[in-house]
Amino acid sequence: MIRRPPRSTLSSSSAASDVYKRQVSTQSTGNIEAAKTVASLISSTLGPNAMMKMILDPMGGTVMTNDGNAILREIDVVQPAAKHMIELARAQDEEVGDGTTSVIVLAGEILSLAQPLLERQIHPLKIVKGFTLALTDALKVIEEVGIKIDLNEPASVKEVVKTCLGTKFGSRELDLMTNLAYDATVRVTRVNAVTNHKDIDFKRYAKVEKIPGGDINDSVVLDGVMFNKDHIHAGMRRHIENPRILLLDTALEFQKGETAVNVEITSDTDYDKLIQQEEEYIRKMCKQVIALKPDVVITEKGVSELAAHFLMKAKITCVRRLRKTDNNRIARATGANVISQLSDASEEDIGKGAGLFEIKKIGDEYFTYITGCPAGSACSIVLRGASKDVLNEMERNLHDALAVTRNIFLEPLAVLGAGALEMEIACRLMENSRTMTGATQVSYQAVAMSLEVIPRILAGNAGANVIRVITDLRTRHTEKGGQQWGIDGVTGEIVNVNDIKVVDPAAVKNQALKTAIEAACMILRVDDVVSGVSVKDDRTQKKAAPAGAEDGGDIGPVQEQ
Question: Distance between CA atoms of 86 and 69, rounded to whole angstroms?
Fold first, then answer.
Protein backbone atom coordinates (compact mmCIF):
# COMPACT_ATOMS: atom_id res chain seq x y z
CA MET A 1 0.00 0.00 0.00
CA ILE A 2 1.45 3.35 -1.05
CA ARG A 3 0.71 6.35 1.14
CA ARG A 4 0.60 9.94 -0.17
CA PRO A 5 3.16 12.12 1.64
CA PRO A 6 1.70 14.90 3.81
CA ARG A 7 1.61 18.45 2.36
CA SER A 8 4.19 20.78 3.75
CA THR A 9 3.20 24.05 5.34
CA LEU A 10 5.23 25.88 2.72
CA SER A 11 3.29 24.38 -0.17
CA SER A 12 0.04 25.15 1.63
CA SER A 13 1.03 28.79 2.06
CA SER A 14 2.10 29.01 -1.57
CA ALA A 15 -1.20 27.53 -2.70
CA ALA A 16 -3.13 30.08 -0.63
CA SER A 17 -1.07 32.88 -2.15
CA ASP A 18 -1.79 31.59 -5.65
CA VAL A 19 -5.51 31.41 -4.91
CA TYR A 20 -5.46 35.03 -3.65
CA LYS A 21 -3.58 36.20 -6.73
CA ARG A 22 -6.06 34.45 -8.99
CA GLN A 23 -8.94 36.02 -7.05
CA VAL A 24 -7.45 39.51 -7.37
CA SER A 25 -6.70 38.94 -11.06
CA THR A 26 -10.23 37.69 -11.73
CA GLN A 27 -11.86 40.65 -9.96
CA SER A 28 -9.57 43.19 -11.65
CA THR A 29 -10.21 41.58 -15.03
CA GLY A 30 -13.97 41.85 -14.52
CA ASN A 31 -13.72 45.52 -13.55
CA ILE A 32 -11.47 46.29 -16.52
CA GLU A 33 -13.80 44.54 -18.95
CA ALA A 34 -16.76 46.53 -17.58
CA ALA A 35 -14.83 49.79 -18.01
CA LYS A 36 -13.85 48.86 -21.57
CA THR A 37 -17.49 48.08 -22.39
CA VAL A 38 -18.66 51.50 -21.19
CA ALA A 39 -15.87 53.22 -23.13
CA SER A 40 -16.61 51.36 -26.35
CA LEU A 41 -20.27 52.33 -26.05
CA ILE A 42 -19.63 56.04 -26.56
CA SER A 43 -16.38 56.04 -28.54
CA SER A 44 -18.31 56.68 -31.77
CA THR A 45 -19.64 59.98 -30.34
CA LEU A 46 -16.19 61.63 -30.34
CA GLY A 47 -15.16 64.21 -32.92
CA PRO A 48 -16.87 66.25 -35.66
CA ASN A 49 -18.12 63.07 -37.37
CA ALA A 50 -19.72 61.87 -34.15
CA MET A 51 -22.72 59.59 -34.35
CA MET A 52 -25.77 60.01 -32.12
CA LYS A 53 -27.38 57.53 -29.76
CA MET A 54 -31.12 56.98 -29.35
CA ILE A 55 -31.95 56.00 -25.79
CA LEU A 56 -35.25 54.68 -24.53
CA ASP A 57 -36.04 55.95 -21.06
CA PRO A 58 -38.12 53.98 -18.48
CA MET A 59 -41.20 56.11 -19.23
CA GLY A 60 -41.20 55.11 -22.90
CA GLY A 61 -39.75 58.34 -24.24
CA THR A 62 -36.65 58.68 -26.40
CA VAL A 63 -33.51 60.77 -26.03
CA MET A 64 -31.30 61.45 -29.05
CA THR A 65 -27.88 62.90 -28.28
CA ASN A 66 -24.13 62.49 -28.71
CA ASP A 67 -23.29 64.02 -25.33
CA GLY A 68 -21.38 61.46 -23.28
CA ASN A 69 -22.88 62.42 -19.94
CA ALA A 70 -26.44 62.55 -21.31
CA ILE A 71 -26.01 59.05 -22.77
CA LEU A 72 -24.48 57.39 -19.72
CA ARG A 73 -26.88 58.87 -17.16
CA GLU A 74 -29.79 57.20 -18.98
CA ILE A 75 -28.14 53.76 -18.86
CA ASP A 76 -29.03 51.32 -16.09
CA VAL A 77 -25.99 49.26 -15.06
CA VAL A 78 -25.40 46.81 -12.23
CA GLN A 79 -21.63 46.20 -12.34
CA PRO A 80 -19.95 48.44 -9.69
CA ALA A 81 -16.95 49.39 -11.85
CA ALA A 82 -19.27 50.38 -14.71
CA LYS A 83 -21.25 52.57 -12.30
CA HIS A 84 -18.00 54.20 -11.24
CA MET A 85 -17.16 54.92 -14.88
CA ILE A 86 -20.53 56.57 -15.42
CA GLU A 87 -19.91 58.78 -12.39
CA LEU A 88 -16.75 60.04 -14.11
CA ALA A 89 -18.81 61.60 -16.90
CA ARG A 90 -21.09 63.28 -14.36
CA ALA A 91 -18.13 64.66 -12.40
CA GLN A 92 -16.50 65.97 -15.58
CA ASP A 93 -19.75 67.63 -16.68
CA GLU A 94 -20.30 69.33 -13.32
CA GLU A 95 -16.70 70.52 -13.01
CA VAL A 96 -15.89 71.85 -16.50
CA GLY A 97 -18.96 71.02 -18.62
CA ASP A 98 -17.10 69.48 -21.58
CA GLY A 99 -14.88 66.47 -22.27
CA THR A 100 -17.29 63.87 -20.89
CA THR A 101 -16.73 61.45 -23.78
CA SER A 102 -12.95 61.92 -23.71
CA VAL A 103 -12.64 61.12 -20.03
CA ILE A 104 -14.56 57.84 -20.36
CA VAL A 105 -12.62 56.75 -23.45
CA LEU A 106 -9.30 57.64 -21.84
CA ALA A 107 -10.08 55.84 -18.57
CA GLY A 108 -11.16 52.73 -20.48
CA GLU A 109 -7.96 52.73 -22.55
CA ILE A 110 -5.73 53.17 -19.48
CA LEU A 111 -7.37 50.19 -17.78
CA SER A 112 -7.15 48.16 -20.98
CA LEU A 113 -3.37 48.68 -21.12
CA ALA A 114 -3.06 47.94 -17.41
CA GLN A 115 -4.56 44.48 -17.89
CA PRO A 116 -1.38 42.92 -19.44
CA LEU A 117 0.62 44.30 -16.51
CA LEU A 118 -1.65 42.53 -14.04
CA GLU A 119 -1.32 39.30 -16.02
CA ARG A 120 2.46 39.61 -15.63
CA GLN A 121 1.89 39.54 -11.84
CA ILE A 122 2.89 43.19 -11.35
CA HIS A 123 1.39 44.47 -8.11
CA PRO A 124 -1.42 47.01 -8.62
CA LEU A 125 0.21 49.52 -6.27
CA LYS A 126 3.33 49.59 -8.44
CA ILE A 127 1.15 50.23 -11.47
CA VAL A 128 -0.64 53.02 -9.61
CA LYS A 129 2.71 54.61 -8.75
CA GLY A 130 3.67 54.78 -12.43
CA PHE A 131 0.25 56.20 -13.31
CA THR A 132 0.62 58.96 -10.70
CA LEU A 133 4.04 59.97 -12.00
CA ALA A 134 2.69 60.08 -15.55
CA LEU A 135 -0.21 62.32 -14.45
CA THR A 136 2.16 64.79 -12.79
CA ASP A 137 4.36 65.02 -15.88
CA ALA A 138 1.34 65.29 -18.23
CA LEU A 139 -0.02 68.28 -16.32
CA LYS A 140 3.39 69.96 -16.59
CA VAL A 141 3.31 69.48 -20.37
CA ILE A 142 -0.10 71.17 -20.56
CA GLU A 143 1.30 74.21 -18.72
CA GLU A 144 4.29 74.36 -21.06
CA VAL A 145 2.35 74.19 -24.33
CA GLY A 146 -0.61 76.29 -23.14
CA ILE A 147 -1.65 79.35 -25.15
CA LYS A 148 -2.71 82.54 -23.35
CA ILE A 149 -6.11 83.90 -24.38
CA ASP A 150 -6.71 87.66 -24.45
CA LEU A 151 -10.13 88.18 -22.87
CA ASN A 152 -10.31 91.66 -24.39
CA GLU A 153 -10.56 90.05 -27.84
CA PRO A 154 -13.92 88.29 -28.18
CA ALA A 155 -12.76 86.55 -31.37
CA SER A 156 -10.09 84.61 -29.43
CA VAL A 157 -12.60 83.40 -26.85
CA LYS A 158 -15.12 82.48 -29.53
CA GLU A 159 -12.56 80.28 -31.33
CA VAL A 160 -12.40 78.07 -28.23
CA VAL A 161 -16.20 77.93 -27.99
CA LYS A 162 -16.47 76.99 -31.68
CA THR A 163 -14.16 74.03 -31.07
CA CYS A 164 -16.48 72.81 -28.32
CA LEU A 165 -19.57 73.15 -30.53
CA GLY A 166 -17.88 71.75 -33.64
CA THR A 167 -18.30 68.16 -32.46
CA LYS A 168 -21.98 68.54 -31.55
CA PHE A 169 -25.37 68.72 -33.21
CA GLY A 170 -25.36 72.51 -32.86
CA SER A 171 -22.39 72.83 -35.23
CA ARG A 172 -24.76 73.56 -38.13
CA GLU A 173 -25.51 76.91 -36.46
CA LEU A 174 -21.99 77.41 -35.15
CA ASP A 175 -21.79 81.21 -35.19
CA LEU A 176 -25.23 81.65 -33.64
CA MET A 177 -24.62 79.21 -30.78
CA THR A 178 -21.16 80.68 -30.14
CA ASN A 179 -22.57 84.19 -29.88
CA LEU A 180 -25.34 83.02 -27.56
CA ALA A 181 -22.85 81.36 -25.21
CA TYR A 182 -20.43 84.30 -25.23
CA ASP A 183 -23.11 86.99 -24.74
CA ALA A 184 -24.80 85.08 -21.91
CA THR A 185 -21.51 84.50 -20.08
CA VAL A 186 -20.53 88.16 -20.36
CA ARG A 187 -23.97 89.09 -19.12
CA VAL A 188 -23.88 87.03 -15.89
CA THR A 189 -20.23 87.76 -15.01
CA ARG A 190 -19.70 89.71 -11.81
CA VAL A 191 -16.26 90.94 -10.72
CA ASN A 192 -15.44 91.64 -7.09
CA ALA A 193 -13.87 95.10 -6.94
CA VAL A 194 -11.69 94.18 -3.94
CA THR A 195 -10.42 90.67 -4.75
CA ASN A 196 -10.91 90.91 -8.55
CA HIS A 197 -12.55 87.46 -8.35
CA LYS A 198 -15.02 86.62 -11.11
CA ASP A 199 -18.38 85.10 -10.19
CA ILE A 200 -19.94 83.34 -13.22
CA ASP A 201 -23.02 81.35 -12.19
CA PHE A 202 -24.76 80.66 -15.49
CA LYS A 203 -26.75 77.74 -14.09
CA ARG A 204 -28.84 80.04 -11.90
CA TYR A 205 -28.72 83.35 -13.72
CA ALA A 206 -28.71 82.36 -17.41
CA LYS A 207 -31.97 80.45 -17.86
CA VAL A 208 -32.66 78.66 -21.14
CA GLU A 209 -36.27 78.98 -22.27
CA LYS A 210 -37.23 76.51 -25.02
CA ILE A 211 -40.15 77.50 -27.24
CA PRO A 212 -41.07 75.00 -30.00
CA GLY A 213 -41.71 76.55 -33.37
CA GLY A 214 -40.04 79.25 -35.38
CA ASP A 215 -36.52 79.16 -36.79
CA ILE A 216 -33.33 78.40 -34.89
CA ASN A 217 -32.02 81.79 -36.05
CA ASP A 218 -34.73 83.43 -33.93
CA SER A 219 -32.86 82.37 -30.78
CA VAL A 220 -31.54 85.31 -28.79
CA VAL A 221 -29.99 86.33 -25.47
CA LEU A 222 -32.27 88.87 -23.79
CA ASP A 223 -30.91 91.87 -21.93
CA GLY A 224 -33.25 90.88 -19.12
CA VAL A 225 -35.40 87.90 -18.20
CA MET A 226 -38.39 86.04 -19.58
CA PHE A 227 -40.72 83.48 -18.00
CA ASN A 228 -43.83 81.57 -18.95
CA LYS A 229 -46.50 83.48 -17.00
CA ASP A 230 -49.45 85.82 -17.65
CA HIS A 231 -51.02 88.46 -15.41
CA ILE A 232 -53.95 87.46 -13.22
CA HIS A 233 -56.62 89.99 -14.26
CA ALA A 234 -57.86 90.85 -17.74
CA GLY A 235 -57.88 94.56 -16.95
CA MET A 236 -54.19 94.77 -16.10
CA ARG A 237 -51.67 96.34 -18.45
CA ARG A 238 -49.49 94.17 -20.72
CA HIS A 239 -47.06 96.87 -21.87
CA ILE A 240 -45.26 99.14 -19.38
CA GLU A 241 -42.21 101.26 -20.12
CA ASN A 242 -39.66 101.93 -17.36
CA PRO A 243 -41.60 99.85 -14.84
CA ARG A 244 -41.18 99.97 -11.07
CA ILE A 245 -41.04 96.31 -10.04
CA LEU A 246 -41.84 94.93 -6.57
CA LEU A 247 -40.82 91.33 -5.84
CA LEU A 248 -42.56 89.46 -3.03
CA ASP A 249 -42.03 86.20 -1.21
CA THR A 250 -45.39 86.41 0.54
CA ALA A 251 -49.01 85.76 -0.40
CA LEU A 252 -51.51 88.52 -1.13
CA GLU A 253 -54.45 86.56 0.23
CA PHE A 254 -56.10 85.75 3.53
CA GLN A 255 -53.82 83.59 5.62
CA LYS A 256 -55.41 80.23 6.25
CA GLY A 257 -54.80 78.09 9.31
CA GLU A 258 -52.09 75.46 9.15
CA THR A 259 -54.50 72.87 10.57
CA ALA A 260 -58.25 72.34 10.31
CA VAL A 261 -60.12 75.31 11.80
CA ASN A 262 -63.77 75.06 12.85
CA VAL A 263 -65.84 78.24 13.16
CA GLU A 264 -69.20 78.19 14.94
CA ILE A 265 -71.75 80.71 13.65
CA THR A 266 -74.55 81.60 16.05
CA SER A 267 -76.25 84.46 14.18
CA ASP A 268 -76.89 85.50 10.61
CA THR A 269 -74.41 88.38 10.87
CA ASP A 270 -71.43 86.32 11.98
CA TYR A 271 -70.64 85.05 8.49
CA ASP A 272 -70.76 88.59 7.11
CA LYS A 273 -68.31 89.66 9.81
CA LEU A 274 -65.89 86.90 8.80
CA ILE A 275 -66.05 87.97 5.16
CA GLN A 276 -65.56 91.60 6.19
CA GLN A 277 -62.53 90.75 8.32
CA GLU A 278 -60.94 88.88 5.42
CA GLU A 279 -61.64 91.80 3.09
CA GLU A 280 -60.13 94.30 5.52
CA TYR A 281 -57.02 92.11 5.91
CA ILE A 282 -56.51 91.97 2.14
CA ARG A 283 -57.30 95.68 1.74
CA LYS A 284 -54.63 96.53 4.32
CA MET A 285 -52.03 94.43 2.48
CA CYS A 286 -52.92 96.03 -0.84
CA LYS A 287 -52.64 99.53 0.65
CA GLN A 288 -49.10 98.71 1.77
CA VAL A 289 -48.28 97.59 -1.75
CA ILE A 290 -49.96 100.58 -3.43
CA ALA A 291 -48.12 102.98 -1.09
CA LEU A 292 -44.84 101.96 -2.73
CA LYS A 293 -46.25 102.99 -6.15
CA PRO A 294 -45.06 99.96 -8.14
CA ASP A 295 -46.14 99.30 -11.72
CA VAL A 296 -45.56 95.53 -11.52
CA VAL A 297 -45.92 93.17 -8.54
CA ILE A 298 -44.48 89.67 -8.83
CA THR A 299 -44.93 87.16 -6.02
CA GLU A 300 -43.89 83.55 -5.46
CA LYS A 301 -47.12 82.80 -3.59
CA GLY A 302 -50.83 83.15 -4.34
CA VAL A 303 -52.95 86.26 -4.92
CA SER A 304 -56.67 86.31 -4.17
CA GLU A 305 -59.26 87.63 -6.59
CA LEU A 306 -60.04 90.51 -4.24
CA ALA A 307 -56.38 91.55 -4.09
CA ALA A 308 -56.18 91.33 -7.88
CA HIS A 309 -59.19 93.67 -8.07
CA PHE A 310 -57.59 96.25 -5.75
CA LEU A 311 -54.30 96.14 -7.67
CA MET A 312 -56.06 96.45 -11.02
CA LYS A 313 -57.89 99.54 -9.77
CA ALA A 314 -54.51 101.03 -8.83
CA LYS A 315 -53.20 100.25 -12.36
CA ILE A 316 -50.73 97.68 -11.06
CA THR A 317 -50.01 94.52 -13.04
CA CYS A 318 -49.57 91.39 -10.92
CA VAL A 319 -47.98 87.99 -11.65
CA ARG A 320 -48.31 85.19 -9.12
CA ARG A 321 -46.78 81.79 -8.27
CA LEU A 322 -43.43 82.46 -9.91
CA ARG A 323 -40.59 80.07 -9.15
CA LYS A 324 -38.01 81.28 -6.65
CA THR A 325 -35.19 80.87 -9.17
CA ASP A 326 -37.01 83.14 -11.62
CA ASN A 327 -37.70 85.68 -8.89
CA ASN A 328 -34.03 85.78 -7.90
CA ARG A 329 -33.07 86.24 -11.54
CA ILE A 330 -35.45 89.20 -11.89
CA ALA A 331 -33.98 90.72 -8.73
CA ARG A 332 -30.47 90.47 -10.12
CA ALA A 333 -31.52 91.91 -13.48
CA THR A 334 -33.56 94.88 -12.21
CA GLY A 335 -31.82 95.67 -8.91
CA ALA A 336 -34.91 94.86 -6.83
CA ASN A 337 -34.93 93.09 -3.46
CA VAL A 338 -37.22 90.15 -2.70
CA ILE A 339 -39.52 91.14 0.19
CA SER A 340 -40.79 88.62 2.74
CA GLN A 341 -42.68 91.11 4.94
CA LEU A 342 -44.67 93.96 3.40
CA SER A 343 -44.19 96.06 6.53
CA ASP A 344 -40.42 96.06 5.89
CA ALA A 345 -40.68 97.17 2.25
CA SER A 346 -39.20 100.52 1.28
CA GLU A 347 -38.39 102.56 -1.81
CA GLU A 348 -34.92 101.00 -2.00
CA ASP A 349 -36.48 97.58 -2.58
CA ILE A 350 -38.19 98.66 -5.81
CA GLY A 351 -36.49 97.48 -9.00
CA LYS A 352 -35.97 100.36 -11.45
CA GLY A 353 -33.36 98.86 -13.78
CA ALA A 354 -35.75 97.55 -16.47
CA GLY A 355 -36.69 99.47 -19.58
CA LEU A 356 -39.75 97.50 -20.67
CA PHE A 357 -42.30 95.09 -19.18
CA GLU A 358 -44.27 93.25 -21.84
CA ILE A 359 -46.48 90.17 -22.07
CA LYS A 360 -46.47 88.40 -25.44
CA LYS A 361 -48.39 85.44 -26.78
CA ILE A 362 -46.24 82.89 -28.61
CA GLY A 363 -48.18 79.93 -29.93
CA ASP A 364 -50.83 79.08 -27.34
CA GLU A 365 -48.98 80.39 -24.28
CA TYR A 366 -48.19 83.76 -22.77
CA PHE A 367 -44.65 84.85 -21.90
CA THR A 368 -43.65 87.79 -19.74
CA TYR A 369 -40.61 89.79 -20.86
CA ILE A 370 -38.67 92.15 -18.59
CA THR A 371 -35.99 93.64 -20.85
CA GLY A 372 -33.80 96.71 -21.20
CA CYS A 373 -31.68 96.00 -18.11
CA PRO A 374 -28.19 97.33 -19.00
CA ALA A 375 -26.84 97.13 -15.46
CA GLY A 376 -28.31 93.70 -14.66
CA SER A 377 -26.22 90.52 -14.40
CA ALA A 378 -28.88 87.96 -15.29
CA CYS A 379 -30.45 86.95 -18.57
CA SER A 380 -32.72 84.51 -20.36
CA ILE A 381 -31.69 82.60 -23.47
CA VAL A 382 -34.65 82.04 -25.79
CA LEU A 383 -34.19 78.95 -27.99
CA ARG A 384 -36.49 78.37 -30.95
CA GLY A 385 -36.58 75.16 -32.96
CA ALA A 386 -38.71 72.82 -34.98
CA SER A 387 -39.29 70.14 -32.33
CA LYS A 388 -38.67 69.35 -28.68
CA ASP A 389 -35.94 66.83 -29.51
CA VAL A 390 -34.01 69.48 -31.43
CA LEU A 391 -34.47 72.00 -28.63
CA ASN A 392 -33.34 69.54 -25.95
CA GLU A 393 -30.16 68.72 -27.88
CA MET A 394 -29.48 72.39 -28.57
CA GLU A 395 -29.86 73.10 -24.84
CA ARG A 396 -27.32 70.39 -23.99
CA ASN A 397 -24.90 71.80 -26.56
CA LEU A 398 -25.41 75.33 -25.24
CA HIS A 399 -24.74 74.16 -21.67
CA ASP A 400 -21.35 72.79 -22.76
CA ALA A 401 -20.57 76.01 -24.64
CA LEU A 402 -21.46 78.13 -21.59
CA ALA A 403 -19.21 75.98 -19.41
CA VAL A 404 -16.31 76.31 -21.84
CA THR A 405 -16.73 80.10 -22.01
CA ARG A 406 -16.79 80.27 -18.21
CA ASN A 407 -13.60 78.18 -18.02
CA ILE A 408 -11.80 80.55 -20.38
CA PHE A 409 -12.97 83.61 -18.41
CA LEU A 410 -11.74 82.08 -15.14
CA GLU A 411 -8.54 80.54 -16.56
CA PRO A 412 -7.57 82.15 -19.90
CA LEU A 413 -5.34 79.30 -21.05
CA ALA A 414 -5.99 77.11 -24.09
CA VAL A 415 -4.25 74.16 -25.76
CA LEU A 416 -4.30 72.76 -29.27
CA GLY A 417 -7.05 70.22 -29.94
CA ALA A 418 -7.65 67.68 -32.71
CA GLY A 419 -5.51 65.10 -30.87
CA ALA A 420 -2.38 67.25 -31.05
CA LEU A 421 -2.07 67.73 -27.28
CA GLU A 422 -2.62 64.05 -26.49
CA MET A 423 -0.01 62.93 -29.00
CA GLU A 424 2.47 65.54 -27.75
CA ILE A 425 2.03 64.39 -24.15
CA ALA A 426 2.37 60.75 -25.24
CA CYS A 427 5.66 61.42 -27.04
CA ARG A 428 7.10 63.37 -24.13
CA LEU A 429 6.10 60.72 -21.62
CA MET A 430 7.70 58.01 -23.76
CA GLU A 431 10.88 60.10 -23.84
CA ASN A 432 10.82 60.51 -20.05
CA SER A 433 10.27 56.78 -19.50
CA ARG A 434 13.74 55.98 -20.85
CA THR A 435 15.24 57.09 -17.55
CA MET A 436 13.04 54.69 -15.55
CA THR A 437 13.24 50.98 -14.87
CA GLY A 438 11.08 48.10 -13.72
CA ALA A 439 7.34 48.18 -13.09
CA THR A 440 7.27 51.96 -12.86
CA GLN A 441 8.56 52.26 -16.42
CA VAL A 442 6.00 49.94 -18.02
CA SER A 443 3.06 51.50 -16.15
CA TYR A 444 4.36 54.98 -17.04
CA GLN A 445 4.52 53.95 -20.70
CA ALA A 446 0.98 52.51 -20.47
CA VAL A 447 -0.38 56.00 -19.76
CA ALA A 448 1.62 57.41 -22.66
CA MET A 449 0.26 54.80 -25.09
CA SER A 450 -3.30 55.21 -23.81
CA LEU A 451 -3.30 58.93 -24.71
CA GLU A 452 -3.05 57.98 -28.38
CA VAL A 453 -6.61 56.66 -28.20
CA ILE A 454 -8.03 60.18 -28.76
CA PRO A 455 -6.36 60.81 -32.16
CA ARG A 456 -6.94 57.15 -33.05
CA ILE A 457 -10.70 57.45 -32.55
CA LEU A 458 -10.78 60.78 -34.39
CA ALA A 459 -9.12 59.15 -37.39
CA GLY A 460 -11.34 56.08 -37.18
CA ASN A 461 -14.58 58.09 -37.01
CA ALA A 462 -13.41 60.08 -40.06
CA GLY A 463 -12.88 56.87 -42.05
CA ALA A 464 -9.09 57.23 -42.38
CA ASN A 465 -6.44 54.51 -42.34
CA VAL A 466 -5.87 54.54 -38.58
CA ILE A 467 -2.51 52.73 -38.44
CA ARG A 468 -0.91 54.85 -41.17
CA VAL A 469 -2.24 58.14 -39.83
CA ILE A 470 -1.27 57.48 -36.20
CA THR A 471 2.21 56.30 -37.18
CA ASP A 472 2.76 59.40 -39.29
CA LEU A 473 1.42 61.67 -36.53
CA ARG A 474 3.65 60.03 -33.91
CA THR A 475 6.68 60.53 -36.15
CA ARG A 476 5.93 64.23 -36.65
CA HIS A 477 5.56 64.83 -32.91
CA THR A 478 8.92 63.25 -32.16
CA GLU A 479 10.53 65.91 -34.34
CA LYS A 480 11.39 69.30 -32.90
CA GLY A 481 8.57 71.84 -33.22
CA GLY A 482 5.99 69.24 -34.25
CA GLN A 483 3.50 69.84 -31.46
CA GLN A 484 1.06 71.66 -33.76
CA TRP A 485 0.23 68.58 -35.86
CA GLY A 486 -3.17 67.00 -35.31
CA ILE A 487 -5.96 65.20 -37.12
CA ASP A 488 -8.74 66.88 -39.06
CA GLY A 489 -11.81 65.21 -37.59
CA VAL A 490 -13.77 65.70 -40.82
CA THR A 491 -11.30 64.36 -43.42
CA GLY A 492 -9.05 62.23 -41.21
CA GLU A 493 -5.91 63.86 -42.61
CA ILE A 494 -2.95 65.19 -40.62
CA VAL A 495 -3.07 69.00 -40.55
CA ASN A 496 -1.55 71.94 -38.75
CA VAL A 497 -4.04 72.60 -35.97
CA ASN A 498 -3.26 76.32 -36.04
CA ASP A 499 -4.64 76.45 -39.58
CA ILE A 500 -7.99 74.84 -38.73
CA LYS A 501 -8.17 76.81 -35.42
CA VAL A 502 -9.09 73.95 -33.12
CA VAL A 503 -8.29 74.94 -29.52
CA ASP A 504 -9.60 73.56 -26.23
CA PRO A 505 -9.58 75.08 -22.72
CA ALA A 506 -6.66 73.84 -20.66
CA ALA A 507 -9.05 73.37 -17.72
CA VAL A 508 -11.00 70.72 -19.64
CA LYS A 509 -7.85 68.75 -20.53
CA ASN A 510 -6.48 69.02 -17.01
CA GLN A 511 -9.70 67.77 -15.48
CA ALA A 512 -10.06 64.94 -18.01
CA LEU A 513 -6.55 63.63 -17.31
CA LYS A 514 -6.95 63.89 -13.54
CA THR A 515 -10.34 62.20 -13.53
CA ALA A 516 -9.40 59.39 -15.93
CA ILE A 517 -6.07 58.44 -14.35
CA GLU A 518 -7.25 58.76 -10.75
CA ALA A 519 -10.34 56.65 -11.53
CA ALA A 520 -8.15 54.00 -13.17
CA CYS A 521 -5.95 53.94 -10.06
CA MET A 522 -8.96 53.42 -7.81
CA ILE A 523 -10.36 50.60 -9.92
CA LEU A 524 -6.97 48.84 -10.01
CA ARG A 525 -6.73 48.94 -6.22
CA VAL A 526 -9.97 46.96 -5.87
CA ASP A 527 -9.30 43.30 -5.08
CA ASP A 528 -12.81 42.23 -4.17
CA VAL A 529 -16.42 43.41 -4.29
CA VAL A 530 -18.47 42.82 -1.16
CA SER A 531 -22.24 43.20 -1.32
CA GLY A 532 -24.42 43.81 1.71
CA VAL A 533 -27.68 42.95 -0.04
CA SER A 534 -27.69 39.22 0.71
CA VAL A 535 -26.70 39.81 4.35
CA LYS A 536 -29.58 42.22 4.75
CA ASP A 537 -31.98 39.67 3.25
CA ASP A 538 -30.75 36.99 5.67
CA ARG A 539 -31.35 39.26 8.64
CA THR A 540 -34.85 40.00 7.40
CA GLN A 541 -35.60 36.29 7.09
CA LYS A 542 -34.29 35.58 10.58
CA LYS A 543 -36.53 38.28 12.06
CA ALA A 544 -39.52 36.83 10.24
CA ALA A 545 -38.77 33.25 11.40
CA PRO A 546 -40.96 31.72 14.20
CA ALA A 547 -39.74 31.98 17.78
CA GLY A 548 -39.14 28.21 18.03
CA ALA A 549 -36.59 28.18 15.23
CA GLU A 550 -32.93 27.87 16.22
CA ASP A 551 -30.23 30.20 14.88
CA GLY A 552 -29.17 29.00 11.47
CA GLY A 553 -31.82 26.28 11.46
CA ASP A 554 -34.59 25.70 8.98
CA ILE A 555 -38.15 24.71 9.69
CA GLY A 556 -39.38 22.40 6.99
CA PRO A 557 -42.89 21.12 6.34
CA VAL A 558 -44.36 18.92 9.08
CA GLN A 559 -45.23 15.48 7.78
CA GLU A 560 -48.04 13.45 9.28
CA GLN A 561 -47.07 10.05 10.72
Answer: 8
